Amino acid sequence: MYKLGLIGYPVGHSMSPWIHENLMKQQGVEGKYELIEIKPEEFDEKVKMLKTKELDGFNVTVPYKEKIIPYLDGLDQSARHLGAVNTVKLTNDGWMGYNTDGQGFVDSLRNRFPDIFHKGSQTLLLGSGGAARGIYEALMRSEITKIDVANRTTTRAEELIQDISAGISSQPLTLNQAESTLENYGLIVQTTTVGMSPGHDQMIMSLDHLTKGTVVSDIVYRPMKTKFLSEADKREARLHFGHEMLLQQAVYAFKIWTDTEPQAVPLLKEFEQKLKGV
């Protein structure tokens, strides 16, 4: 009987319980997945209490992907490299941290737009938080040859590039600089929470300079089609949705916890209908 969960703030919107309950059914295992909302001022106290709950594992979402690390007993190579964790497993050696965000993103993107990798497209990441770090690292290991990072100020973008880049061409930009040069990129990835419900009318930047046929991705999945993606659609971009990444990274987390081989594709259509309220 697996005891699993998700910590973050807020988490009331999360579809992770639905995903993992369906993965349990798919793999024929029993368990429970609960939402554990932790306010920032209560983080230290609540995380220490979690150790008494004997959870087999849990996911970590914003804003705690970096903050959770000092409370863990070990990190796998990817999480250590990134300095960000989205999956924790209870092992004989204590709490081990992993990061499945980046590979989940890349594999879901490759499933939909494999040509992006064949062309070696120039990529622009918007944001420089935990999710951006995971996506950057995974893209760097793919065929992508140039990844620029844009943030409100360039300081954190510079830090991300310095921490992770292994010889790949990368430039830190302000959001204003990136906004005026969107035509340079074949892939644009929005990695922040801007546009997530209830702020669904917000956009991180204007897309006035977007080129037709550009692949535009937003890791926000509620709403499924964010304002950012809606504006990209008007400009005839090709859209990659956040729920595809969410499902794929969840599959990897579930595999870590249960040592099973879950599959994302059989759940994708049902997941989309669930998000649309069908």
How do the helices and strands follow one another from N- to C-terminus?
EHEHEEHEEHHEHEHEHEEHEHH
| Total of helices | 11
Bin the helical content.
25-40%
CATH homologous superfamily caption of the largest domain: NAD(P)-binding Rossmann-like Domain
What is the CATH topology of the largest domain? Rossmann fold
- Give, in spatial order, the strands making up the sheet with the most strands: 2-1-3-5-6-4
- CATH class identity of the largest domain: Alpha Beta
Strand residue content: 15-25%
Radius of gyration computed on alpha carbons: 18 Å
Biggest sheet character: 6 strands, mixed
Mean pLDDT: 94
Structure summary, number of beta strands: 12
Based on the structure given, which CATH architecture of the largest domain is correct? Answer: 3-Layer(aba) Sandwich
> Which structural class best describes the helix and strand composition?
alpha/beta
Number of domains: 2
Unreliable stretches (pLDDT < 50, length at least 5) are none
Shape: globular
Enzyme class: oxidoreductase
Family: Belongs to the shikimate dehydrogenase family.
Protein name: Shikimate dehydrogenase (NADP(+))
InterPro entries: Aminoacid_DH-like_N_sf, NAD(P)-bd_dom_sf, SDH_C, Shikimate_DH, Shikimate_DH-bd_N, Shikimate_DH_fam, Shikm_DH/Glu-tRNA_Rdtase
